Amino acid sequence: MTPEFSRPVRVDRIxxxxxxxxxxxxxxxxxxxxxxxGIVSIDSLSARVALRRTNEDDVAVSARFSARVVQECVVTLxxxxxxxxxxxxxxxxxxxxxxxxxxxxxxxxDEDFEPFAGESLxxxxxxxxxxxxxxxxxxxxxxxxEAAGPGEGDDSPPEGTDSPFRVLEGRTENR
Length: 175
Known about the structure:
This protein is of the alpha+beta class and 175 residues long. It is built from 5 helices and 7 strands; from the N terminus they run E-E-H-E-E-E-H-E-E-H-H-H. It has one domain. The strands form 2 sheets. It has a 5-stranded mixed sheet, with helices on one face. Strand 5, helix 2 and strand 6 form a beta-alpha-beta unit. The N and C termini lie far apart (66 Å).
């Protein structure tokens, strides 16, 4: 299956001095990514990706990406727009296709790399994954605090009611 924002780069065509690619997601790609991430929309997504071979097999990737995303507020369900501007550095190391077919690649604890198989790296998919990691897991609109009911934004019980702990305290004292 081809990822929604696919920008493959053949590893053997990356010069030892490195290369830089500018990538921009089109409207259909952004719509598909928003669906995959379960958010309202991705209004823009672009990246500047630098690739450099560190040895015969590994590829160091540094990317600066920016995006404008819209998510639903977890309280009001109102749209919440946010701008993301991030830099990431990744190291890609080739592994055999059989390792990827097993769906589990064991990475030694003292190493930090992204496995890949084949002749190409998909820098678009790498940016998409990093974007997903930057999304706010609990987006809140400015109206969220006003809409919050008892116990959602304020831990105090509503006027005229006893705390459940106070009620239980009264029960244990009567025994």
